User: Fold this.
Amino acid sequence: MSNDVILEKAKEMLNNNINSNLYYKVYSFATENINGYIDYFDLKNKSLLTVGSSGDQILNAYYKGCRDITLIDVNPFAKYYINLKIAGVISLTYQEFQEFFCKNLSEKNNKRYNLNLFKKLCLTLKEIDYDSYYFFLYILNNYSCDTITNILINDDQDKIKVIKTINNYLYDEKSFNLLKKTLNDFNFNFKNEDIRNYKSNNKYDNIFLSNLCTIFELDELKKLLIRLKDNNLNKEGKILLAYLWNINYFSEEINLDWIPIYNMATTRGVLKDFITEHYNIQGIYDIAFNENKQSDLVMIYKK
Assistant:
């Protein structure tokens, strides 16, 4: 694909997103405590199918030794953004990575998505994925940070303390550099589709569904779990079928008809064959406000 075609494709995709929110937005970082649940899965030298447009699911899995990773996302921008993040880990220092990607690093972070830092990672990005390189070359040369986050990236970003705590690879400089040393050979498969329409018979040791449970009806989630179990999960494999935030508050306060999975009585009935493990973990709210209520909940199926 020629450079001009890639740039025209970038313009078309952006215009579609600006005019209609056709693809919605990618998340700059995960909104769940990946560090809180990842050790419930055997990932070293295993295979993983995951959702997650921020790329944090695959970066944390790779940090834990997973080497066969497929990301599925309905948003085509996710591939470009994740490749940008991978190039950032390889090419930037720990501080520079935070400056380039983190909104809340300081009261006014004027280095976020700026061209000077992009120049430090762009050759690596070009080697990783040609399309991603020209896409962001066009984006960063033509739009301000505010405009980029308005049209491409969900800017509801947690505090830097939360981002570091929930991500193994960002916990400290040592962890970041440990991931950096291994990423040069990193490849992931990208499937641009809705996981509900995923027809492949590829088998995986682990599947992460993140928080999709909060937007699916329970019967719809059950049908998806049956299909993934039968078609895509290896023997003794595991599925992260649900990540729920602040479970006690939501169970008491929200309209349970609005997010059905928070109605635990109904959920346990509909998904009784799939909730083989469940764990309360330190929640996003706990981390942000120095509490230890273990307020988030993960539900796991083991085959």
Observations:
- DSSP finds 14 helices and nine strands in the chain.
- The mean pLDDT is 90.
- Residues 3-29+75-184 form one domain.
- The chain has two domains: 3-29+75-184, 209-302.
